[in-house]
Amino acid sequence: MNSSVNIRGGRVVDPASSRDELGDVFIVDGKFSPAPAAGAVEVEARGLVVCPGFIDMHVHLREPGQGAKETIETGTRAAAAGGFTSVLAMPNTNPVADHPGIIAWMAERAAAVGAVNVYLSGAITVGSEGGQLASIGAMSAAGIVAVTDDGRCVQSHDVMLRAAEYCGMFGLPLLDHCQDASLAGPEAVMHQGYWSTLLGLPGWPRMAEEIIVARNAFLAEATGTPIHCQHLTSAGSVRLLREARARGIPLSGEVCPHHIALTDESLKDYDTNFKMNPPLREEADIDALLQGIADGTIDILATDHAPHAPYEKEVEFAAAPFGIVGLETAVGLFCHLLLHCHGVVDLPKLVAMLTVNPARLLGLNRGTLALGAAADVTLLDPDLEWVVDKASFVSKGRNTPFHGWKLQGRAVRTIVGGRTVWKNKV
Amino acid sequence: MNWTRKDLLALGDLTADEITLILDTAAGFKVVGQRRLKKVPSLRGKTLVNLFVEASTRTRTSFELAAVRLSADVVNITASSSSLAKGESLKDTAKNLEALAADLIVLRHSAAGAAQFLAERLRAGVINAGDGSHEHPTQGLLDVFTIRERLGRVAGVKVGIVGDIRFSRVARSNIQALTKLGAEVTLIGPPTLVPREFERTGVRITHRLDDVLGELDVINLLRIQHERQKAGYFPGTGEYATLFGLNAARAERLKPEALVMHPGPIHRGVELDGSVADGPHSVILDQVTNGLAVRMAVLYLCGAVPTEAKG
Q: Which value does ipTM take for this structure?
């Protein structure tokens, strides 16, 4: 298959090199090249933005063990359809990805059926149970680029401190689902506030997240190991992160589309497509997250793509699993909300948050159009209007709260290593 | 006004006029209940299923009796006897009931939103008989009915609700109905059981019962559950009774015409002393009687809405 492409006439945005100009991008044999190759696929990009391929560092591919929800094959095809050329798979599979055998199996599977680049993360602790450290060194040798107990925040500060110290030896960042389990008990299903009070649903307060963000600031400062706070939701977390980064602490944060698109009021009809962990919070939190994005406190965008089977979600609210799909709606939502509705970022900054910033944190030689880098490209039409239709999803998951939303902005072509893996039909 | 709902899910959904319509209809049925012949043919040929996925005796019995007096055929299903205990989903159980042509389903369930979940998926009418900590609409209606009957009005009446507001569906339904009809509601209890967020519903909160006792027209005491003590919401029932229990000494400070209410079952000596529960202020047994009339009204109104008309 031809992996040479001449992309002509687009607005080329490569934040890693501060490039933003009308021009051409050439790919020869899967690498960026200064000159076009004969016989290459010609792509007309006038009116489009030519970006480094988007990276989503928070994806649940569900394999091994939960193929009814998603597989590596369907999840990566969904990523391609959403404009992502690389994903970082979370280790909360069944069994948990906590040793090199599972990592090797996932890597092999991804190489065989993956539509986009799949990076792997390993568990921090054995079984993600928060106790004994998992075999991080062996998993590092097997190729992981980060460690996380996503979904099950390590509660012992001592264990987390040892993990941060230990990861420093391999240059691996720690990704943390910041949540104090004693404040977010097993009964809790949403943000604790007016709506949880009215609906009679047990909630958990912002401080459950904020306390752990503060903890992580101390640990990152003490050890020098980068700690990344996943899917932040609260104003207090943004403030803590801003203060920590101002002091030079290697602490970072990400934001997911739903936490800036929706509030806890959305749960008033007990629709389980609005049930996620961490939960939807309030307008003031959205304002703070947007401010954090605007001033660079939060510099990474991610989806927390969490597919579930319809029969799992179509149950009483308390019994439903947390999470929503995100790969096929995220780019549209980020363009729509951050560029058009709120105007808190310009295009190069938006692209950086989806490319070079996660690439740097994870140490990937991607997220740039630099010569010699792997030729992943996302063609973006930031003004294209479209309507979310869950029936058209490539993902097995249909659990989205955004069905029927009219969005402005969409990835229209996804190129991985010079090969087009997805093209918008319109 | 006309009743157009096939379901009764929450008093939060209703207008003041709709609530008043139910109360007026219930008043008519209360008269029927005092006749020698207590049965009317309103729901003849209709099938009502009492689906109780959480234990309850008095509410289920009250609904059953209400349905029987309206001449409906009644089936009782409890969790232990149903497929739900074997792991069948609520959705599948409900679909099966509908396949058997049930017209009305009365649901008691431990999950908030369970009644709405069923109502959105079934042609049959769904009556919420308590969904988790969310609402217990017929209890709220019977409490308001009792107040209106005894005091002649609801607007302007000062109602204190005391106790475990945080976890109480009775409190939520009372707050909705009372505020919609213009009563002045005060929530009373420790901050751990009376979240400040309730203030946005238009009620007042106090943590000192003795400050407000003398001004209340109605005091509604909620059952205090031992599980809350174990979970650390208050130190013990003794301390609770000292701070918030309606004992004989406190009852003497009530207005002479004040009503003492309790949704039952009572923890005598904790939230309410026996002498007060059985004393002159108490309307606790009126509540039980009125519950029957209110449930007849709800079944009558929802049962008369053609199920095909469901949106």
A: 0.93
| CB pairs A-B closer than 8 Å | 59
Q: With 70 as the cut, is the pLDDT of residue A426 above it?
A: no
| DSSP H helical ranges for chain B | 16-33, 58-69, 90-99, 114-119, 137-151, 169-180, 209-212, 226-230, 237-244, 248-252, 274-277, 284-304
pLDDT in tens, A164-195: 999 999 999 999 999 999 999 999 999 999 99
Domain ranges in chain B are: 11-134+289-309, 137-287
Asked if A108 and A141 count as a contact pair (C-beta separation under 8 A), the reply is no
Interchain contact, A201 vs B117, CB within 8 Å: no
Catalytic one of B15, B39, B44, B58: B58
Q: Of A197, A269, A311, which has the smallest distance from its Cβ to B116's Cβ?
A: A269
- The Cα of A312 is separated from the nearest Cα of chain B by a number of Å equal to 10
CATH of B11-134+289-309, one of 3.40.50.1370, 3.40.50.2300, 3.20.20.70, 3.10.180.10: 3.40.50.1370
Superfamily of domain B137-287: Aspartate/ornithine carbamoyltransferase (3.40.50.1370)
Of A193, A200, A269, the CB nearest to B134: A200
Q: Catalytic pick from A304, A381, A383, A389?
A: A304
Cα separation, B48 vs B231, in Å, equals 38
Q: Taking CB atoms and an 8 Å cutoff, what residues of chain A touch B13? A: none
Is B108 considered catalytic here? yes
Region B41-45 average pLDDT: 95
**Residue A23, both tokens:** 């021009």
CA B9, CA B54: separation in Å to the nearest integer?
17
Question: Is the per-residue pLDDT at A153 higher than 60?
Answer: yes
The answer, yes or no, to whether residue A201 has pLDDT greater than 50, is yes
pLDDT at B297: 98
Q: Can you give the pLDDT at residue B93?
A: 86
Of residues B19, B265, B283, the one with CA closest to residue B138? B19
Residue A348: inside a domain, yes or no?
Answer: yes
Please check whether residue A38 is in contact with residue A29, taking contact to mean a CB–CB distance below 8 angstroms.
no
Which pLDDT belongs to residue B307?
A: 64
CA-based radius of gyration for chain B: 19
- CATH number of the domain bearing residue A132: 3.20.20.140
Q: How far apart are CA A398 and CA B66, in angstroms?
A: 42
